[in-house]
Amino acid sequence: MDIQKIFEHLGMPKYADAVYLLLRQEGPMGSTHISKKLGIYQPSTYRVLPALLAYRFVYITKKGRRKAYHAVNPRFVEKTFLENPDAITKIIEKRTRRKRSHKKVPS
Description:
- The protein has six helices and two strands, in the order ααααββαα.
- It is mainly alpha-helical.
- The longest helix has 17 residues, at about 85-100.
- A hairpin with a 2-residue loop joins β1 (about 60-65) and β2 (about 65-70).
- The protein has helices spanning about 5-10, 15-25, 30-40, 40-55, 75-85, 85-100; strands at about 60-65, 65-70.
- It has a single domain, classed as Orthogonal Bundle (Arc Repressor Mutant, subunit A), CATH 1.10.10.10.
């Protein structure tokens, strides 16, 4: 299964595939460097990274105050979802529940 198809199926934000592929090709880097390399605004990068982290496509290492984002091996991602087709559904349900719990109740 193609990484881009997985991202589309999961409803990942715009540029998620570009960020993931950049990290795979060039290695770990910070959010500012990601934005500059892709030529996208930092708020877009800040929208993409939490989604990638939530689905475990990316993980973080810290060195002092700086964070470096690393992409996991695409074979691992494919293997995880091919071996357990319910994994996608479980992750989507978990994210949906989390989003609902963050919504403000109107007064």
